[in-house]
Amino acid sequence: MSAHFLHHPVRHPLGEEWLMAYAAGALSEGQSLLVASHLSYLDDTASRLAVAEAAGGALLEAVDPARMAPEALANTLARLDETRQETKAAPRAKDQTNDVLPPPLRAWLGRGVDELNWSLLGPGMKKVKLWRGGPNDQRLWMLRARPGIEIPMHGHSGTELVLVLKGSLEDEHGIFRAGDVEESNDDRIHSLRTGPEEECICLAVTEGPTRFQGWLARALQPLIGL
Questions:
Q1: Deepest of 41, 50, 162, 212, by most Cβ within 10 A of its Cβ?
Q2: Could you tell me the CA-to-CA distances from 157 to 10, 51, 137 in Å, in that order?
Q3: Spatial CA neighbour of 204 closest among 148, 135, 127
Q4: Mean pLDDT of the region 24-34
Q5: Which sequence ranges form a coiled-coil region, renumbered to this chain (predicted)?
Q6: What's residue 95's pLDDT?
Q7: CA 181/CA 207 separation, integer angstroms
Q8: How much is the pTM?
């Protein structure tokens, strides 16, 4: 499989535990969509899924069959097959903005980036909320920010996964470009900056509300809804 819209290798991939959970069907809809989208950028998707499938199979064998839903194995196998199909190379779209969407996300949205209902998040930043549900009040949303924007210092109520689709993000752990995933948890406080080269578009899954540090961001949070 070729990562058809990637111009450099993914340097910050998701850990194997996320792939195993994805293969086992243990993730929420929002998390599953982010993982499937991330897999679209990897050159070794097939081998990664094979490892996850083998590990997931071992876990399934260890589970009491009476505690499993009758369709659990069929659903897992179908999920793996769907991912293999979604991560095959697809023709590049004529619209270069829309082309930043990986195939699973493009199929799920059914429309392009410019057709989404973006709303103001802060100076130079827009957001669109896509889904809410699953355990721990998960929120799936997208960020669109101009180059060189400072995202205020904040923490999280649980796990946060941010998949970069276009441009780059930078924090104390490095630079995250298209295909990379920045993962944070509830004991980490950090700030982010978008790269100077072009606008940044990201897909994120968060658990519970974001914990902003600044008084202004906290005051505006009810309006932001994240």
A1: 41
A2: 27, 31, 10
A3: 127
A4: 93
A5: none
A6: 45
A7: 16
A8: 0.75
CA distances from 79 to 84, 179, 195, 204 (A): 9, 21, 34, 21
Question: Which residues are paired to 154 by β-bridges?
Answer: 190, 212
Instruction: State how far Cα 117 lies from the chain centre.
Output: 19
Q: b or e along 184-213 (b: 16 or more beta carbons within 10 Å of the residue's beta carbon)?
A: beeeeeeebbbbeeebbbbbbbbbbbbebe
* Cβ atoms of 39 and 48 closer than 8 Å: yes
Residue from 140, 124, 134 nearest 200 by CA: 124
| CATH class of the domain defined by 12-91+102-225 | mainly beta
The token pair at 69 is: 């839903």
One-letter amino acid of 195: G
Cβ contact 156:206 at 8 Å: yes
Distance CA 31, CA 29 (A): 6
Per-residue pLDDT tens digits for 77-126: 455 455 545 544 444 443 445 579 999 999 999 999 999 999 998 889 99
- Residue 172: partners with Cβ closer than 8 Å, 6 or more residues away: 190
Is-contact 138 27, C-beta < 8 A?
Answer: no
